[in-house]
Write a structure and sequence with these properties.
Layout (H helix, E strand, L loop, with lengths): L2 E5 L9 H5 L4 E3 L5 E3 L8 H10 L5 E5 L2 E2 L4
Antiparallel strand pairs: 1-4, 2-3, 4-5
Length: 72
């Protein structure tokens, strides 16, 4: 199973929820928008899904083998 995380920078509102909840997997870029780190691949799918569900703007999406794990 290969998980992929994408963050839509146009939707990200910099709430910091993903960075706060999973600091080893997400950080802020130079524009203060969330981005995944290399540690994101270490998180189990359940935690990735929880981070995506907690994103207030719906900018964080999790895919498994190219298929979205949950709708926006």
């Amino acid at each position: 199973m290969g998980y992929t995380v994408r963050i839509d920078k146009n939707l990200c509102m910099s709430s910091g929820r993903c960075v706060l909840d999973e600091p080893d997997a997400f950080r802020f870029d130079d524009d203060e928008l969330a981005e995944p780190t290399t540690g994101v691949t270490e998180l189990p799918g359940e935690r990735l899904n929880a981070a995506a569900r907690a994103c207030p703007s719906g900018a964080l999406r999790v895919f498994m083998d190219g298929q979205p794990l949950q709708p926006r």
